[in-house]
Specification:
single chain; five-stranded antiparallel β-sheet; 21% helix; disordered N terminus; binds beta-L-fucopyranose
Length: 497
């Protein structure tokens, strides 16, 4: 606790004594650095959203267009329908989506001033009328979802790529145009693929850039934040990190911090770094279909169960999940993808729709911090459904237990824990035990590394993210033991399903 202090202060009357107030009048625990920005915090709360790869490649069958495509090849067989995309992913429990509006081929899906390689120049009427950013943003607002855009820094069409003029006259302007489609967008996705061979306005050569300096990221970030204050600049933008694979899993241990700019950073994307000095939370990008990021004839959908597993291994491991579903040549999602998304939504609703912790008859912590003027740290905060209240022990308590008890035994399968990360990610180790009678305890999921929690950690009590839902476990009581922490652990929610 910070003590009060008497300090000298200069004033018109000369020197006088001023009584300083407490630094933490609410007896709040001190922050444990590094901390997320408010923008990153809001972004982590989105948890699960969609990726829509759609564009010239949908029609050429490529994954990486060279940049020399005839614009007339962009020929949607119907008007592209972002509303249908977003409705389908909302049914899967997603809270938003990112639309690819320019991939590496440089082909833009909006009436941009920056290039002729754009949809509005297509001879196809549906193609020429396309404006994905406009329609996607509008649909998201109507559906109460979050939205953002993928704009590839690498541009295999532009003659200027590799020169300063490209960054100033093409890339920055494109980002600006996109930011102006909505000040409430949540993420701009900057892919890491940078430079290489391409058309480059007919030069057909190979160009390389140093992405860490070429794109003038600090200025870009500041400028876009003026237009869209909550827009997290992903990847090259350095506000959120790639989780290191495109298969939909994060490390069981997963810190939201990184030792940015060091060799060890790229080797530890999947787990983050406890010693990291920069808050750089993870995002897992993964495909919900069997072929590429773009739609391909003959592709199949992964099963809803496989996608549920991905959810457990990403959202359940302190990582956001951006799940790709590609629209087809009609500019809509195929019916099979829509069905799979619906089934996934049903699985999530059936398994996580009812939080049994909210009905616990008691929640007791082994230690609780003294209340301050306007805030208490009681264990009841863990089950009040409020993310802004939290349980806390005293500064020197790095371990503690929290026990939930029900009047009637419950059948349970998953436990979800959430740290109050506004004050830093702290927990290093924990354990979950269940008791059918309130006195004999069984340790659950011993095969799962119960190390970090972070924004959210979901533990399947049977120890497996992939095996069947099972019959569950009978619990009269549930005990969560925090075994180690960087500073006193702060949890805001325990959920039980
Ligand atoms: C990668 C890109 O090169 C792929 O084409 C795709 O867009 C994926 C999400 O990111 O790095």
């Amino acid at each position: 606790m910070a003590a009060s202090a008497a300090v000298l202060s200069a004033s018109a009357e000369g020197l006088q004594l001023v009584q300083q107030s407490f630094v933490y009048p609410d007896n709040e625990p001190a922050p444990c650095h590094p901390l997320p920005t408010p923008r990153q915090l809001k972004w982590q709360e989105l948890e699960f959203y969609a990726f829509f790869h759609y564009g010239m490649n949908t029609y050429t069958g490529l994954e990486w267009g060279n940049g020399n495509e005839n614009v007339n090849r962009f020929a949607p067989t119907a008007a592209p329908n972002p509303r249908q995309w977003l409705e389908a992913v909302k049914a899967a429990g997603m809270r938003g989506g990112i639309a690819v509006v320019k991939h590496h081929d440089g082909f833009c899906l909006w009436p941009t001033e920056t290039t002729d390689h754009r949809c509005t120049n297509s001879s196809n009427a549906n193609g020429a009328a396309t404006n994905i950013p406009r329609d996607f943003a509008q649909a998201a607002k109507d559906l109460d979802m979050k939205y953002g855009f993928y704009v590839s820094p690498w541009d295999r069409n532009s003659a200027l790529y590799g020169t300063d003029r490209y960054v100033k006259e093409v890339f920055m302007k494109q980002c600006e145009e996109l930011a102006n489609y909505g000040s409430d967008q949540f993420e701009m996705w900057f892919d890491g693929a940078n430079g290489g061979s391409g058309y480059y306005g007919g030069a057909n050569d190979t160009r390389s850039v140093d992405a860490s300096t070429y794109y003038d990221v600090p200025n870009l970030r500041d400028y876009i934040h003026q237009l869209a204050p909550d827009c997290v600049m992903w990847g090259v933008g350095e506000e959120a990190r790639w989780i290191g694979n495109e298969s939909g899993y994060a490390g069981e241990t997963n810190w939201s911090m990184q030792e940015r700019g060091t060799a060890s950073e790229s080797a530890n994307r999947n787990t983050g770094q406890e010693e990291g000095w920069v808050w750089l939370p993870g995002e897992s990008d993964a495909k919900a279909t069997s072929a590429g990021w773009f739609w391909h004839s003959g592709q199949t959908d992964l099963s809803a169960e496989r996608l549920f597993q991905m959810y457990l291994e990403t959202v359940g491991r302190n990582s956001n999940l951006i799940l790709n579903v590609p629209p087809d040549k009609s500019g809509s999602l195929p019916a099979s993808s829509v069905n799979t998304l619906k089934s996934l939504g049903e699985l999530l609703q059936n398994r996580f729709g009812t939080d049994l912790a909210l009905n616990a008859s008691s929640v007791v912590a082994s230690v609780t911090r003294a209340s301050g003027a306007n805030r208490n740290y009681n264990a009841s905060n863990l089950i009040d459904g409020d993310k802004d209240t939290y349980w806390a022990p005293n500064d020197n308590d790095l371990s503690a237990t929290i026990t939930l008890t029900w009047d009637q035994p419950q059948t349970i399968r998953y436990v979800s824990l959430m740290e109050y990360i506004a004050k830093g990610q702290r927990v290093r180790g924990f354990r979950i035990e269940v008791s059918a009678d309130g006195s004999t305890w069984t340790t659950m999921a011993p095969g799962i590394t119960q190390s970090t929690i972070g924004y959210k950690r979901i533990i399947p009590l049977n120890g497996s993210t992939s095996s069947s839902y099972g019959t569950g476990y009978t619990a009269k009581s549930l005990r969560v033991t925090i075994t180690d922490s960087r500073a006193c652990p702060l949890l805001h929610t325990i959920s039980v399903y």
